[in-house]
Amino acid sequence: MSLPKDVYTWRTNWIKPYESPWSIFEKFKSANGVLDLDIIRKFGIDEVKNLRVIRPIHYDLVKMFSLNERLIKNVLGTDLVQRNRKALDELIRVLPQDHLLGIVSPWESVYLREKLYFCVQCLKQGYHSIFHQFKLLHHCPFHNEKLIQCCPECNSKYDYSLSNKMFDSPFICSCGHAYCQINQDQLFYDSWNQPQEHYNILPPELHQWLTLTSSQKSRLKKMYFIPQTDFEKHPNTLINFLTVTKKESNIPGHNFVESSKTIKKIRSFEEKKFAFKYSKKGDFSNLNEFYIKKARFDILQKEFYQNYKRIIAGVSKHIRQTIITEHKSCLYEMKNFQGRGPICSYAYAYIAWRRTIQNFDHFSLVDNNGRPKRLNKPIFEYPSSAYFLYDLYDQWNNQIDDITLSSRAATKWLLNRILVQFLLKWFDNWLQHSKEFISEGIMPAVPQFEDEYPFFIAVFSNESNEEVEFHWWDDKRKYTEFVCPFS
Predict the structure, then answer these.
(1) Are the C-beta atoms of residues 26 and 170 closer than 8 Å to each other?
(2) For the chain, which ranges sit under pLDDT 70?
(3) What digits encode the pLDDT tens for the residues 213-254?
(4) Is the dihedral of CA 115, 120, 121, 123 positive or negative?
(5) Cα 132 from Cα 155, distance rounded (Å)
(6) Which of 305, 444, 327, 313 is nearest to 385 (CA)?
(7) Nearest 5 degrees, angle CA 27-CA 211-CA 256?
(8) For 311-348, what is each residue's pLDDT tens digit?
(9) What does the alpha-carbon distance between residue 107 and residue 99 come to, in Å, rounded to a whole number?
(10) Count of beta carbons in the 10 Å neighbourhood of residue 424
(11) Are strands 172-173 and 254-258 parallel, antiparallel or unpaired?
(12) 347: which residues sit within 8 A by CB, 6+ positions away?
């Protein structure tokens, strides 16, 4: 059924505080008996509503670029596009973006869920909040119920979109499950007319987030985390970000270190000697700047590789002396494994971990003075699974004029702490998947958990007199759940 021109059923007070465009349009569809295509034909910009084929991108509810702001305001009584833009400005655009551009597209997908997440209690009244799409929130801020993304009857998932895909009609899943369960004795608009003031009451953490000071927002922009971080696996991320914005250091489970304010100016005697040697005044005065810089970079690359090996050695020693201290004989059995007999999960995880992060040809070479393969490329060498470190390098390099002449102390200070967190998380990933790999008799070079990263926050800027900060949180995982087959 198409919508006649200028004939519609709508009341402005049906729009509730913090309500998302999705449920506002669902209400409009329900009240007027129309579908998604009718919405596009009614409210779309000329370039879109005259298209013969409406594509999924035109149903976007984040940027809403396909919709005409004036037409929506004339009908709904509010500029829904600007309203949505303002809500997202307060919610996600205060978060760091620079290190996401070009890596994650669109960058908003790092912070906003692409699938529809909802609170069952909210949907009973035909309400869905923009907060439900915010990845840093995992419970409904109004009912404190865990947000879900699947139909309770058929497990269908829905796009956060204007599209009616997977819906039989507004608020009704294609399987027939009805989300909006307004009392049959009252008309839907009587329920939507009610003020429902509880939508104005926000939990303390969310209220703090929406009322950040200008200095706190400035700190947020200086933060770095792994762009591929899955916030769904880190339920306390909102609190963690708030902790860093306030620079609190007495929160249980929160670890925080910062460098000196002069770390970016520190130059050792060797660095000064190095800088002079590879300069126009030094041993390479007859070369042009390109070859001089390349020579400096080659030397720096070798130094950072040696530093990388020292970090691996230190973390390996830590794992051997803590997590697998009672499995040293298991390591010996694993390195001499002939394809038969039981395998200890702890030994398997350690050997597989060392093999993949240092690129050994065979697992028997681990801890046996085997020589790992070098990349032999004009780049810093990181673990093959730590792709994000190259992105971090670009981000860090953009803050300074020439990394080959900058303070190695500052670069190592940040890089070493990130490497430690990554290496510990990577070992944990191997341990958690060890049973299934052992049962399949494999040790994959590129394991399926390669996108599982640790969560940390680094804070840095291009100011030469600012310290560098590193924040991380305790991992509460216990390592006693695996049974060793050897006594």
Answers:
(1) yes
(2) 1-6, 102, 182-189, 269, 274-275, 278-287, 369-387, 399-401, 450-451, 487
(3) 999 999 999 998 988 888 998 889 999 999 999 887 788 889
(4) positive
(5) 18
(6) 444
(7) 120
(8) 989 999 999 999 999 998 998 888 888 777 889 999 99
(9) 9
(10) 18
(11) unpaired
(12) 324, 327, 330, 331, 333, 334
Structure-token match 């702890």, residue found: 346
- At 156, phi and psi to the nearest 5? -65, 145
Apex 178 CA angle, 173 and 181, nearest 5: 155
b/e code 273-310 from CB counts within 10 Å (16+ = b):
ebbeebeeeeebeeeeeeebbebbbeebbeebeebbee
Q: How far apart are CA 157 and CA 170, in angstroms?
A: 15
The closest of 271, 295, 279 to 409, measured between CA atoms, is: 271
Tell me, what DSSP letter sits at residue 323? T
Asked if 416 and 433 touch (Cβ cutoff 8 Å), the reply is no
Q: Answer yes or no: are the C-beta atoms of 386 and 415 closer than 8 Å.
A: no
**339 residue type, one letter:** G
Residue whose pair of structure tokens reads 């104005």 in the numeric block = 200
Cα end-to-end distance, the chain, whole Å = 73
Task: Decide: 459 and 369 in contact? Cβ < 8 Å.
Answer: no
Q: What are the DSSP calls for 381-409, one per residue?
A: ---TT-THHHHHHHHHHTTSS-TTTS-HH
Indicate the pairing of strand 456-459 with strand 167-169. unpaired
* Number of neighbouring beta carbons within 10 Å of residue 471: 25
Under DSSP, the state recorded for 446 is S
- With vertex at residue 359, the alpha carbon angle to CA 357 and CA 361, rounded to the nearest 5 degrees, is 140
pTM: 0.87
Q: CB under 8 Å to 221, separation ≥6 — which residues?
A: 94, 96, 98
Helix-, strand-, coil-residue percentages of the chain, each rounded to 5: 45, 10, 50
Angle between helix 328-335 and 345-358 (nearest 10): 60
Cβ proximity of 468 and 410 under 8 Å: yes
- Contact present, 122 and 140 (Cβ < 8 Å): yes
Radius of gyration of the chain (CA): 28
Instruction: Report how far residue 260's alpha carbon sits from residue 465's, in angstroms, rounded to the nearest whole number.
Output: 9
